[in-house]
Design goal:
The protein is mainly β. It has no helices and 10 strands. The chain is globular, with a radius of gyration of 14 Å.
Amino acid sequence: MIRRSGEYRTEQREEMRGGKGTVTIEHFWEPKTEMRSHTRMCAKLTIPPGGSIGFHPHDAEDEIFVVVRGRAEADDNGDIVELGPGDTILTGNGDGHAIRCVGDEPLELIAVISTY
């Protein structure tokens, strides 16, 4: 199955998980109806400069972020690190994370959440 850019279901989330600004989510594939795996999200997230997703845990699931564009400051379960294009973060097993766009351009991430 192929889905082209511009055909994704898009949503806006204000102050996502207690963060700042509006996060745009472009869902590549829909869990349960299009994907058979135990996946809760498979999407591109765009966070504007100064915007963020607030700190939150992941219980019984793993979340992978892949930075595609921009600069991020990530709270990786208490460790604060800067991330750039090509960097990844994996959060799960009850650990938590937050992410903030620290550059002048929007932060684009690929996000995949798998449940177990």
